[in-house]
């Protein structure tokens, strides 16, 4: 409560300071990026936003997004075995259902589970990957306790054209190829890609859950995927029109688990999805108008034959969702430093599965008011959001955030107080024999205080530092817990507290043609049950590591580049109180680029899990040991 | 190093808690105590409660250094070994065999898709296997596997009804309750001649027989949980539920209709120490004399549980509360509460070793 009061005082004071600035500017100069950029980017300037380095995106182009984020960001990836197995990402001690994943502003989290399966998203399919720590609920809506991930394909209005190919082969019969093309001029910006991926993924591992810790080989773990993403942006008489389409299919055999006996499994899953949107933006005087409409269709089929001789299925489950999302936004610029947004959303949501008692349709609408003021001293943002759902009535949402240039060009201070909520997902409410329509929505407050040292000359190079402390209070956290028999059920487990710090430091050194970029990131998090009535009072939540460390260093010299990347994750507990040991993973890589008369070519090599560590992230799901990858990138 | 420590701890626990009670060198001494089987969620466990009421959680792990696996379903013991039937969620179920003297791993019986229960007769073991349904949750018959106890391998498959669960050996007959499994579509008990390992009779009882006991007269009591209707979930109703009493001589069936079922238990029937009183659950625990011709109306214990067993030495009822962590509550044969223990997640049954 004291903390809440402190934040209120700080925000009030800062707001007063802000209002006292002169805002009477007759001539408004709005940066063009502010017009073209996704709407929410306008409000992310006070957030801790980390853009993944394009070098790292290219390096892990052949991997899925969970692999990229696990190696590069202070996020907690939960993976059921890598190589296409279910992978979700939690931020700042929250779970995967508390991370909003957006593609060009379109939320792609599953309607039915609430989380985004990042194994379905290619790391290299986007121009920009941003991690927004502690994104606010009043802007992003349900399920942003931890933060948001923004995947963007940006328009380019310069005259340019290129086609290219990225191809990689690796251990365990893995291969991936991406064909891409881009064309742009002052009126059109097009980019398109098609990708194909296959992996047998029959890696060996030490089964330390079996007698004698035998070395076992994972079978039935084959994975194949293909898909395409198309983006077209038009600029016609200052009207900005965007089209996007994303279709992909993934077929994954689900491998067996560690434990007594061989890893036998006859499970298989097919995921297919189609996402498309059309958007329009226009600046008219002091008004920026934007409208967007998107259609998303997701299909999942899970089967389990149960035995080698079974020609039918022991388990057959299909689940499909369809969403039609509409968004209209009006921004008015009082000046080039002060703007206000009014945003309205309407969503039509449908869940179709034999696991519900019939099809489920919900209608949802949302109103958001947001204002941003950016005087010389910094930036101040206030937002208000209210959502209406035909089945669940979420609370009103607020956020107050600021970024103060305490010592301009040297030290910035970031502060934020905001509310968050998460409505129960379709599965949590409607799943036969498990769902509970009486589940309460999660809700609570987030607080954050950050300090940034902007780029400074030190240690023979440039150093930046970003330090953040945060706390999130959540009432009625929803968690799937063991119910009767083998049945898991979602329940409100009561109050939880999530608190911690994260620190990121980068150092950049350039000597003639030598560039050395080093990054060190550390996160401490404590997420625990704070419900005095609970048997688990003050106990840590499952699968929340206290410590995360990410280290990377990249050396570029002429046509060569080489790097090392390390991740350290501390022990976690399962929901049953068992321990999952932490792990230290190290990757190394090398690349060489050269030009021919017809193309720019880059050859790459990479070793993942250099130390060949046997580890789990989710208990009993084996993760791969050392793996080698060789790639070629060609741009014509 | 951690495994060595686990093993040392397990051996220490085993040596402290248990003593051999036999002077006969040819007999293998058995561990003594009450073994509570916990289904768990991601992983099952065994909680050992000794005669001094000391509870050792995760006893299997403490001894063997290895997790038991997903969804252990039942447990039984013969002179030499204890057998833990682990269903798993992946279609690769197994029976973990540990030696009766120290609970150390001896063998793993594999090649089972969905094992449920184990019984012993004629020097062999029998494992009921199968979930009773196809992909559309329609009825699909399953099997009982015959296990060679010397090699701990399957030697024969006997076709029975859908979703076979509890098995009872009476004389040279093995009774198999065909519960319908996930299809909830069976109402039979298969009778297997253990000399020939062939089904010699199929007896019709009430719907979805899951659990059975044998009384002092040699009659078999089948607890039939009925066909569930989830359309008004979380309110679930059951049709054609009841107790079916199978005459041990003639195999004739007389049934009692159960109404007002509210139990979500899976082990819902037990027999008293003298085998003259049947305990069963519907909306509470009831006690019924085996000669009664009508169901009792008075509640014996006004609560329902996930599992129920009777200690064969003192006749106490051990009732499992299927929660996480789980709880076992002990009642006297007179129905008064004696004590309770906190155990692993989702306990479903207790095995007693003396």
Description of the molecule:
The complex is a heterodimer of chains A (636) and B (354). Chain A is mainly β and 636 residues long. Chain A has 6 helices and 35 strands. The longest helix of chain A is centred in the N-terminal third of the chain and has 18 residues, at 2-19. Chain B has 354 residues and is mainly beta. Helix content of chain B is 6%, strand content 45%. Chain B has helices at 2-17, 59-64; strands at residues 33-38, 45-49, 55-56, 72-77, 81-86, 93-99, 105-112, 115-121, 124-129, 143-148, 153-159, 164-170, 173-178, 188-193, 198-204, 209-214, 220-224, 227-229, 237-239, 242-246, 253-257, 269-271, 277-281, 285-289, 307-310, 317-321, 326-331, 337-343, 347-353. In chain B, the strands form 8 sheets. Chain B has a 4-stranded antiparallel sheet. A 4-stranded antiparallel sheet of chain B has the order 4-5-6-7, with no helix packed on it. Chain B starts with a helix and ends with a strand. Chain A binds chain B through residues 208-211, 213, 256-257, 259-267, 303-307, 310, 312-316, 357, 432-433, 436, 481-482, 484-486, 488, 535, 574-576, 578, 619-620, and chain B through 3, 39-43, 64, 66-71, 86-92, 94, 96, 105, 108, 110, 113-114, 131, 133-136, 140, 230-231, 233-234, 264, 266, 306, 322, 324-325, 345-346.
The count of DSSP E runs of length 2 or more, i.e. the number of strands of chain A, is 35
Beta-strand proportion of chain A: over 45%
Count of individual helical segments of chain B: 2
The number of helical runs of chain A is: 6
Average pLDDT for all residues of chain A = 89
Report the span from N to C terminus of chain B. 34 Å
Q: What is the helical fraction of chain B, as a range of percent?
A: under 10%
> Describe the biggest sheet of chain A?
22 strands, antiparallel, barrel
- Report how far the terminal alpha carbons of chain A are from each other: 60 Å
The number of distinct β-strands of chain B equals 29
Largest interface: A-B, 44 and 45 residues
User: What is the SS-derived class of chain A?
Assistant: mainly beta
SS class of chain B: mainly beta
Name the shape of chain B in a single word: globular
């Amino acid at each position: 409560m004291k903390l809440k009061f402190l934040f209120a005082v700080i925000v009030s004071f800062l707001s007063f300071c802000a209002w006292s600035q002169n805002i009477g500017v007759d001539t408004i100069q709005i940066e063009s990026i502010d017009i073209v950029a996704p709407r929410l980017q306008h409000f992310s300037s006070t957030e801790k936003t980390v853009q993944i380095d394009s070098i790292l995106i290219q390096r892990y182009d052949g991997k899925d997004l969970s692999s990229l984020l696990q190696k590069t960001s202070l996020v907690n990836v939960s993976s059921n075995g890598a190589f296409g197995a279910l992978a979700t990402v939690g931020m700042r001690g929250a779970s995967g259902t508390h991370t909003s994943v957006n593609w060009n502003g379109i939320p792609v989290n599953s309607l039915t589970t609430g989380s985004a399966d990042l194994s379905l998203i290619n790391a290299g399919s986007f121009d920009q990957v941003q991690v927004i720590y502690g994104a606010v609920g009043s802007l992003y809506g349900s399920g942003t306790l931890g933060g948001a991930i923004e995947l963007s394909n940006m328009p380019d209005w310069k005259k340019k054209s290129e086609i290219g190919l990225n191809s990689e082969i690796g251990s365990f019969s893995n291969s991936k190829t991406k064909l891409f093309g881009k064309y742009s001029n002052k009126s059109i910006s097009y980019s398109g890609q098609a990708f194909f991926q296959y992996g047998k993924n029959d890696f060996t591992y030490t089964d330390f859950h079996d007698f004698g810790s035998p070395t076992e080989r994972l079978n039935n773990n084959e994975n194949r995927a293909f898909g395409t993403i198309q983006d077209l942006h038009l600029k016609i008489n200052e009207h900005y029109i965007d089209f996007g389409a994303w279709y992909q299919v993934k077929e994954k055999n689900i491998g067996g688990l560690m434990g007594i006996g061989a890893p036998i499994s006859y499970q298989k899953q097919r995921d297919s999805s189609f996402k498309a949107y059309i958007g329009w933006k226009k600046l008219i005087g002091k008004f920026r108008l934007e409208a967007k409409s998107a259609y998303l269709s997701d299909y999942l089929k899970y089967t389990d034959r149960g035995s080698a001789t079974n020609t039918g299925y022991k388990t057959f489950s299909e689940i499909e969702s369809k969403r039609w999302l509409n968004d209209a936004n009006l921004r008015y610029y009082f000046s080039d430093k002060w703007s206000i947004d009014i945003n309205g959303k309407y969503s039509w949501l449908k869940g179709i599965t034999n696991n519900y008692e019939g099809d489920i349709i919900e209608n949802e609408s949302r109103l958001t008011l947001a204002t941003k003021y950016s005087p010389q001293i910094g930036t101040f943002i206030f937002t208000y959001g209210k959502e209406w759902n035909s089945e669940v009535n979420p609370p009103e949402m607020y956020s107050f955030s600021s970024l103060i240039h305490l010592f301009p060009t040297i030290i910035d201070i970031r502060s934020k107080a905001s509310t968050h909520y998460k409505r129960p997902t379709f599965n949590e409410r409607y799943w036969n024999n498990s769902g509970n329509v009486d589940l309460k929505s999660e809700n609570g407050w987030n607080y954050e205080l950050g300090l940034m040292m902007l780029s400074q000359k030190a240690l023979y190079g440039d150093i930046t530092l970003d330090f953040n402390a945060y706390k999130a209070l959540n009432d009625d956290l929803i968690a799937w817990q063991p119910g009767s028999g083998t049945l898991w059920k979602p329940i409100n487990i009561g109050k939880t507290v999530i608190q911690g710090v994260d620190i990121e430091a980068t150092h950049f050194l350039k000597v003639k043609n030598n560039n050395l970029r080093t990054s060190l990131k550390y996160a401490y998090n404590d997420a625990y049950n704070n419900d005095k009535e609970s048997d688990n009072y003050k106990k840590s939540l499952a699968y929340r590591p206290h410590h995360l460390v990410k280290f990377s260093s990249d050396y570029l010299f002429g046509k060569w580049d080489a790097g090392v990347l390390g991740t350290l994750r501390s022990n976690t507990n399962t929901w049953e109180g068992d321990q999952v040991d932490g792990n230290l993973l190290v990757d190394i890589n090398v690349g060489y680029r050269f030009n021919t008369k017809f193309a720019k070519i880059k050859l790459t090599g990479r070793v993942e899990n250099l130390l060949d560590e046997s580890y789990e992230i989710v208990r009993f799901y084996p993760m791969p040991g050392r793996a080698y990858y060789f790639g070629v990138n060609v741009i014509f | 190093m951690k495994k060595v420590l686990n093993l040392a701890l397990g051996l220490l626990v085993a040596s402290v808690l248990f003593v051999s009670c036999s002077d006969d060198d040819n007999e293998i001494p058995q561990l003594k105590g009450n073994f509570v089987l916990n289904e768990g969620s991601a992983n099952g466990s065994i909680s050992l409660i000794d005669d001094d009421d000391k509870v050792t959680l995760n006893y299997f792990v403490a001894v063997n250094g290895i997790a038991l696996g997903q969804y252990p379903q039942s447990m039984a013991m013969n002179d030499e070994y204890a057998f833990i039937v682990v269903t798993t969620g992946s279609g690769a179920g197994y029976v973990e065999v540990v030696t009766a003297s120290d609970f150390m791993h001896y063998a793993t019986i594999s090649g089972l898709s969905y094992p449920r229960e184990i019984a012993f007769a004629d020097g062999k073991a029998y494992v009921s296997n199968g979930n009773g349904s196809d992909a559309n949750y329609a009825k699909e018959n399953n099997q009982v596997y015959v296990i060679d106890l010397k090699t701990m391998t399957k030697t024969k498959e006997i076709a029975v009804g859908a979703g076979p669960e509890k098995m009872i050996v009476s004389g040279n007959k093995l009774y198999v309750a065909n519960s319908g499994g996930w299809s909830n579509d069976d109402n039979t008990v298969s009778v297997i001649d253990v000399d020939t390992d062939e089904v010699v009779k199929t007896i019709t009882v009430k719907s979805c027989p899951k659990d059975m006991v044998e009384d002092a007269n040699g009659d078999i009591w089948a607890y039939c949980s009925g066909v569930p209707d989830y359309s008004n979930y979380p309110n679930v109703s059951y049709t054609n539920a009841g107790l079916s009493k199978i005459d041990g001589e003639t195999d004739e069936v007389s049934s009692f209709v159960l109404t007002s079922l509210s139990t979500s238990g899976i082990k819902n029937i037990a027999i008293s120490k003298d085998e003259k009183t049947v305990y069963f659950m519907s909306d509470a625990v009831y006690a019924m004399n085996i000669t009664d011709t009508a169901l009792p109306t008075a509640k014996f214990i006004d609560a329902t549980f996930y599992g129920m067993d009777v200690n064969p030495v003192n006749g106490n009822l051990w009732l499992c509360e299927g929660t996480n962590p789980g709880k076992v509550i002990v009642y006297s044969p007179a129905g008064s509460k004696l004590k309770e223990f906190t155990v692993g997640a989702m306990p479903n049954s207790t095995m007693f070793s003396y």
